[in-house]
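Backbone-to-sequence.
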């Protein structure tokens, strides 16, 4: 039951992403030939007026197939005959929908159970924060140049610090104080910490919940790009990332823990999907975005047939990477 709930949740995230592409395609007068959830052979389909709506056997993605998106077409409703700006709007819509969904889900979580205020409750002795004089009751208001509104904001700054000294501003008894703290890496979680914890919970209004949704999504984006940077520098191990098997396992565990935990995990995954699809890799939205920005800036149209070949190669490489990551998930599963 929990695995089924996890698959359904992941499917909803994919539908939201593809719905973004589909909606903007329709608004821009583009003919959509197929709206597919999943990859591989079809297991179910409905023939619409001009669009096939299908479910495919592998629950690892989806796509919106538009007329003229993989070759040249003379039809005025073909994707290739639209302006670069219109094509860019269609491609951007998918990741944007993922981020919007993340904001909505985080807002729902905040409204349901509140969020932690950036007020220190516990200070671990002999850790960086304690050594530099931070005490229980101190309210953290700024780290470097970033304003701190929630405890998650503060944690994000610590996690993404890469161990560099942080200028922390906090309020004690109405007086603002400043201190420089250097995070250390926690051997257990392999994350940077300063040795402070919070427990004060804010029960937000609707407006504050939406604001929290934006804040949490932005924090997650910053953490993800920090991780990507560390990966390119070779500072991550095989235990720091997972693929489809890990996602399903974690989703099942989240479902078992309760609806809010599953919602939080869904928010996390949808933001990751948005970021992943923005990477400038052929066959991903980011590859198309790079291409259409080039067309928009230079005014030169790229041969769609060549684009199709590049995307096929990119797709094959992505599928190969997916297979390798899946094998890694099986042979070296992440323990949680």
């Amino acid at each position: 039951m929990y695995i089924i709930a996890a698959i359904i949740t992941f499917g909803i995230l994919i539908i939201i992403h593809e719905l973004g592409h589909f909606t903007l395609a329709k608004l821009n007068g583009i003919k959509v030939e197929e709206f597919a959830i999943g990859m591989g052979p079809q297991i179910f389909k409905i023939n619409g007026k001009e669009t096939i709506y299908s479910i495919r056997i592998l629950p690892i993605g989806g796509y919106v197939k538009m007329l003229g998106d993989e070759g040249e077409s003379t039809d005025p409703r073909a994707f290739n005959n639209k302006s670069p700006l219109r094509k860019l709007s269609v491609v951007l819509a998918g990741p944007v929908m993922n981020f919007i969904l993340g904001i909505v889900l985080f807002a729902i979580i905040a409204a349901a159970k509140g969020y932690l205020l950036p007020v220190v409750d516990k200070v671990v002795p002999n850790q960086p924060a304690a050594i530099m004089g931070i005490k229980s009751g101190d309210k953290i208001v700024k780290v470097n140049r970033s304003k701190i509104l929630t405890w998650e904001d503060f944690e994000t700054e610590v996690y993404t610090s890469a161990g560099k000294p942080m200028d922390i501003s906090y309020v004690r008894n109405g007086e603002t104080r400043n201190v420089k703290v250097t995070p250390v890496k926690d051997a257990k979680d392999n994350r940077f910490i300063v040795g402070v914890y919070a427990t004060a919970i804010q029960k937000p209004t609707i407006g504050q919940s939406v604001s929290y949704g934006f804040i949490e999504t932005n924090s997650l984006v910053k953490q993800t790009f920090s991780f990507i940077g560390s990966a390119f520098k070779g500072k991550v191990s095989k235990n720091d990332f997972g693929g489809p098997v890990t996602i399903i396992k974690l989703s099942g565990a989240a479902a078992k823990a309760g609806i809010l935990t599953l919602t939080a995990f869904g928010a996390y995954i949808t933001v990751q999907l948005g970021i992943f699809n923005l990477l400038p890799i052929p066959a991903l939205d980011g590859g198309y975005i790079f291409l259409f920005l080039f067309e928009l800036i230079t005014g030169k149209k790229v041969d769609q047939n060549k684009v199709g070949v590049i995307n096929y190669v990119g797709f094959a490489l992505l599928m190969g990477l997916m297979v390798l990551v899946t094998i890694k998930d099986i042979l070296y599963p992440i323990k949680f």
